[in-house]
Amino acid sequence: MDSVVNSENLNEEGSQPEVGFFEISKNKLLIMSIGTFGLYSLYWFYQNWCRYNQRENADTWPIARTIFSIFFMHSLCARIEAYFELKKGHAPYDLNQYATLYVLVCLTSFLPEPQNPSVAILVGLIIAIVGVAGFTFVLVKIQNIINVANGEGSTSINDKLTGINYVWLTLGGLFWLSCLASAVFALSML
User: Fold this and answer.
1) Which of 35, 92, 95, 179 is a Cys-bridge partner for 169, taking CB atoms 3.0 to 4.6 Å apart?
2) Helices (H), the chain
């Protein structure tokens, strides 16, 4: 995990810098979230809760808070706001509205489906695409606040795609293709 100290992460005094929240460039977050059909958001939540635990010596369960992110998004945003205020001396833009938008977008997956199976496939796909786009928008907005609080512009920003990122993007691309094939099939059945 990230508790390993390597010499690249040391500051001028030779100590490890303070752990903020998960640092990732907005572009990489956008690519990974959309490219993996939203699965990267689980990693994003997990990393943010782990870093919170590490910095605050807290005893929260990052996995549970990740799985049930719809219930813990407001709590995470409140902690990000408090960290921003601590680092920058003033409150950031209110993240509560983004947390609420995230919850609402997640709830759209529970909309009733039409009775016609072909129409249900198309409606389900549209809801999924809007959902992925919606919560990706929210995560990018929140990540902007995190990056500013962490000192955006530092050389350690996580902006490069790694080999494992490409593996996940390939799997996500295959999933996107299967969704497209399902949509084409559903359209041919109308």
Assistant:
1) 35
2) 26-35, 40-56, 62-67, 69-88, 96-107, 117-150, 163-189
Q: How far apart are CA 174 and CA 26, in angstroms?
A: 23
- CA-CA distances (angstroms) from residue 17 to 20, 97, 176? 9, 31, 39
For the record, the structure tokens of 9 come out as 């992460």
* Cβ atoms of residues 34 and 132 within 8 Å: yes
Q: Nearest CA to 41 among 19, 55, 54, 24?
A: 24
Buried b or exposed e, range 16-54, using 16+ CB within 10 angstroms: eeebbbbbbbbebbbbbbbbbbbbbbebbbbbbbbbbbe
Q: For 160, what's the count of Cα atoms within 13 Å in the CB-facing half-sphere?
A: 4
Give the global pTM: 0.83
The closest alpha carbon to 52, from 149, 119, 118, belongs to: 149
pLDDT digits (tens, 9 = 90+) for 96-128: 999 999 999 989 877 777 788 878 888 888 888
Residue partners of 78: CB distance under 8 A and separation at least 6: 95, 96
Provide the b/e sequence for 71-81 (b: ≥16 CB within 10 Å): ebbbebbebbb
